[in-house]
Design a protein that fits this description.
The complex is a heterodimer of chains A (638) and B (200). Chain A is an all-alpha fold and 638 residues long. Chain A has one domain: Cytochrome c oxidase-like, subunit I domain (Cytochrome C Oxidase, Chain A, Up-down Bundle), CATH 1.20.210. In chain A, strands 2-3 form a two-stranded antiparallel sheet. The longest helix of chain A has 36 residues. Chain A is globular and about 80 Å long. With 200 residues, chain B is mainly alpha-helical. Chain B has one domain: Cytochrome c oxidase, subunit III, four-helix bundle (Four Helix Bundle (Hemerythrin (Met), subunit A), Up-down Bundle), CATH 1.20.120. Helix content of chain B is 72%, strand content 4%. Chain B contains five helices and one strand. In chain B, helix 2 runs antiparallel to helix 3 and helix 2 packs antiparallel against helix 5. Classes of the chains: A mainly alpha (638), B mainly alpha (200). Strand 1 of chain A pairs parallel with strand 1 of chain B, so a sheet runs across the interface.
């Protein structure tokens, strides 16, 4: 952007015709062509699309690992994969799916949808957003690089000490795992800050707290959970590296440390993590459902309260992952009660959705199929959740395939099904093209049936005593028939995902044009063309109702009076969303990319030497200063 | 869809101050993250203490003087810090410049004292879990001071440059002052843990 042919700062969009506003805004908010333009962009939609695509690539890779495990377990005494590689594979599968797919993809949906749904032009701190993506990409690639080099972590996705400590895990495998955690946590924390500030301060005028879409509420609660929970895992992974690198004694019982401390720290993060993945998914359900039943969501207030309650309760459950380590009876009873209590807000949400379906006229398009698949599957996962919340039952099935079945039901059923529905729902917005209804039905059918055939029998295997994480089993054990059945069923599930990806790629190029609002939905992201222009909205919408786009409305009420020569958006008050300022939004910049490279360099180096933190911090500081130093652009005026 | 202009925002200021500023909220969110981190580190301190038969483990309690002087200094630094913030609120560039130089010194001095704090612990990080957590607590807070010092130094340079006289910069000065207050407040429980809990 040069200042040469700029319009005068005194000219506001009030004085201009729509076509002229469009011309100026496109130039002001656009991404420059070419490689460096792509690297420097801070457009939340571009970054979110990259984030989503990258996360789905990790999903495919993690899915291939799952197929490899199923191939290995299809028959007893299989020698396809040796035990060491198998350890790497299940560790990679879990780590990858949690840290590189589920959490980032939900954050990515947030940074795509939240600014559009609250009616603003970019996220708060767009450069931090760019930084977040690069950190995520580099961290994820590093983990997979280590796997390619046969040096991937092999201690399970929660890396319990002492197995992951210096004595039992020599080499750098565990350090790579721990540092990869740092990468993904930094990127998640960055997104959380952006989402919270975007929702608190950049909502369209009139979008008071009680008019915020449920999905946006879910993303806010998720962000607060990230903010409170992620420091725990960062503390844990950092102290693990310190134990391994410089000989601190946090997890060494011989010198006053404690192995259970690791479990406490890990699960204090790990349990909210489940809800960090799950809450955005239920937010998606609550936001999609009204569109397909032709009526507003039933119980808006109850749904929002349930989200917040779940967010708070999720911090009081972590010990239920540790029922067999021998904690005081009183503590176990408390955590049993809290684990069962969280079923209450989950139940409230389910009844609100059922009521919405009951009172409306459901139109069974693909997103609604995924929603129904979600409700069925998640309720089943929730039932086994209440079962394992009880200490005696948990003691029986701990570390068996029963638990594997349970968490795949809640995570795949509770988060991946709504996510796939959400992709079908928002794909037209993101690309301007519809996905195929026929292929979508096939994808849903295969995934739903394949999922249940794959994971339901695991409950039985678990009750029959098959432990998780074993690389093979003996033929005399009564497990081989079900294992073969599961392995074959997993192919159906994989085929379903294949159909889904084929549909995505095909529709990207050849899908039918979507238009701005193909579903007749009522939230603000549908008030702008598909895909949205770089500035999102030609004029910032003014919100007068919880459902700002009603079918009977012919015009969208908007605000005007913003500059078009600089990136400008509206800052509004937290509660009532009354306009407070015409704030500028940062321009594209290459520095977040350099800062991410410098940070990655420091983090990787610090696996090998503590001095990396000292010397590696210098380029980080230089990049950050260059990032923040004012460049004399119109965005710096005030 | 056609649009209908119902609101004219042209009279609004070009930058919000205080809690109308996005960076103020960003700073608060960072403080929440770091506050959670510190709270957790302190929880770990007490957890390890509850596990140990004696506390401190195989070491005398730390010497008080360096840490206590640093605490006094940090608490005292709040006064010029609040002054800088209020001068920034009044857009008084000359005073803000002086204040930022003072606050830069107020960041350097504690770091000088911090050098004496580590040996005053009478234990190394690798001797036992007590040593590990005390070093990590002290190390975390040192990083905290250091990052805010660099922030203050950069901001001081900025306020002597042509970009200085701008509401946006004054907002940055206020946010930086807010953050320094947090650095001070976060230290107090850590100070109590490191220096006084072993004396209980």
């Amino acid at each position: 952007m040069t200042g040469v042919d700029r319009i005068s700062p005194d000219v506001l969009d009030l004085d201009l015709q729509d076509a002229e506003v469009e011309r100026h805004l496109s130039r002001t908010w656009g991404t420059s062509p070419g490689f460096w333009g792509a690297i420097a962009t801070v457009d939340h939609k571009v970054i979110a699309r990259r984030y989503i695509a990258t996360a789905f690539v990790f999903l495919i890779l993690g899915g291939l690992l799952a197929l490899a495990m199923r191939l290995q377990l299809a028959r007893p005494e299989s020698r396809l994969i040796d035990p060491d590689r198998y350890n790497q594979i299940f560790t990679m599968h879990g780590t990858n799916m949690m840290f590189l797919f589920a959490v980032p993809v939900m954050g990515a949906m947030a940074i795509y949808l939240v600014p559009l749904m609250v009616g603003t032009r970019n996220v708060a701190f767009p450069r931090l957003n760019a930084f977040s993506y690069w950190i995520f990409l580099i961290g994820g690639s590093l983990l997979w690089l280590s796997f390619a080099l046969d040096a991937a972590p092999d201690v399970g996705w929660f890396a319990y000490v002492p197995l992951s400590g210096p004595q039992y895990s020599p080499g750098k495998r565990t350090d790579l795992w721990a540092q990869m955690i740092t990468f993904t946590e930094v990127s998640a924390l960055a997104i959380a800050i952006e989402v919270v500030v975007t929702v608190f301060k950049q909502r369209a005028p009139g979008m008071s707290l009680d008019r915020i879409p449920v999905l946006v509420w879910a993303m806010v609660v998720m962000s607060f959970q990230v903010i409170m929970a992620m420091p725990s895992i960062m503390f844990a992974s950092t102290t693990l590296i310190l134990d391994r690198l410089v000989g601190t004694q946090f997890y060494n019982p011989a010198e006053g440390g404690d192995a259970l401390l690791w479990q406490h720290l890990f699960w204090f993060f790990g349990h909210p993590e489940v809800y960090i993945i799950f809450l955005p998914a239920v937010g998606m359900v609550s936001s999609m459902l009204p569109t397909f039943v032709g009526r507003p969501i039933f119980g808006y207030l109850a749904l929002v309260m349930a989200l917040i309650t779940t967010g708070i309760l999720s911090f009081g459950l972590w010990v239920h992952h540790m029922f067999v380590v021998g904690l005081p009876r009183m503590g176990e009873s408390f955590f049993t009660a809290s684990s069962m209590a969280i079923a209450v807000p989950a139940g409230i949400q389910i009844f609100c959705w059922l009521a919405t379906l009951w009172l409306g006229r459901p139109v069974f398009r693909v997103p609604l199929l995924f929603i129904i698949g979600f409700i069925v599957t998640f309720v089943m996962g929730g039932m086994t959740g209440v079962m394992v919340a009880s200490v005696p039952f948990d003691t029986q099935v701990h570390d068996t395939y029963f638990v594997v079945a349970h968490f795949h039901y809640v995570l795949v059923g509770g988060a991946v099904f709504p996510l796939l529905g959400a992709i079908y729902y928002w794909f037209p917005k993101m690309t301007g093209r519809m996905m195929s209804e026929t292929l979508g039905r096939w994808a849903f059918g295969l995934i739903f049936v394949g999922f249940h055939l794959t994971f339901f029998p695991m409950h039985i295997l678990g009750l029959q005593g098959m432990p998780r994480r074993i690389y093979t089993y003996q033929p005399e054990l009564p497990w081989s028939g079900l294992n073969l059945f599961i392995s074959i069923s997993s192919l159906i599930l994989a085929l379903g995902f294949l159909v889904f990806f084929v549909d995505v790629l095909r529709s990207w190029r050849h899908g039918l044009p979507a238009g701005p609002n193909p579903w007749g939905a009522s939230t603000l992201e549908w008030a702008t063309p598909s895909p949205p222009p770089p500035y999102n909205f030609l004029r910032i919408p003014v919100v007068q109702d919880r459902n700002p786009l009603r079918p009977e409305d012919k015009e969208l009420p908007v605000a005007a009076g913003l500059r078009v020569d600089r990136r400008e958006l509206l800052v509004t008050s937290v509660v009532e969303a009354l306009p407070e300022a015409r704030e500028s939004s940062p321009q594209n910049s290459i520095w977040p990319f350099w800062a991410a490279l410098a940070t990655s360099f420091m983090l990787v180096w610090s696996i090998f030497s503590p001095w990396a933190v000292v010397w590696g911090a210098i380029p980080v500081a230089v990049a950050l200063i260059a990032w923040f130093w004012p460049k004399g652009t119109p965005e710096d005026e005030a | 869809m056609k649009s209908r202009i119902v609101l004219d925002v042209s009279k609004l200021p070009l930058h919000g101050m205080g809690n109308a500023s996005l960076t103020w909220w960003g700073t608060c969110a960072f403080m929440l993250i770091e506050g959670s981190g510190f709270a957790l580190a302190i929880a770990v301190y007490f957890y390890l203490m509850s596990m140990a038969p004696e506390w401190p483990i195989n070491a005398p309690a730390p010497d008080l003087w360096a840490g206590t002087w640093l605490t006094i200094l940090l608490v005292a630094s709040v006064i010029p810090n609040i002054l800088v913030s209020s001068w920034a609120g009044k857009s008084d560039l000359r005073k803000v410049r002086i204040g930022l130089v003072v606050m830069s010194l107020m960041g350097i001095l504690p770091l000088a004292l911090r050098i004496f704090e580590f040996p005053a612990l009478h234990i190394l990080w690798d001797q036992n879990a007590y040593g590990s957590i005390t070093w990590v607590l002290l190390g975390l807070h040192t990083t905290h001071i250091l990052t805010d010092l660099i922030d203050t130094l950069v901001l001081a340079c900025l306020m002597f440059s042509k970009h200085a006289d701008n509401p946006r910069r004054y907002g940055d000065v206020e946010d930086n002052a807010l953050y320094w207050n947090f650095v001070v407040v976060a230290w107090l429980p850590i100070y109590a843990c490191i220096y006084w809990v072993p004396r209980l």
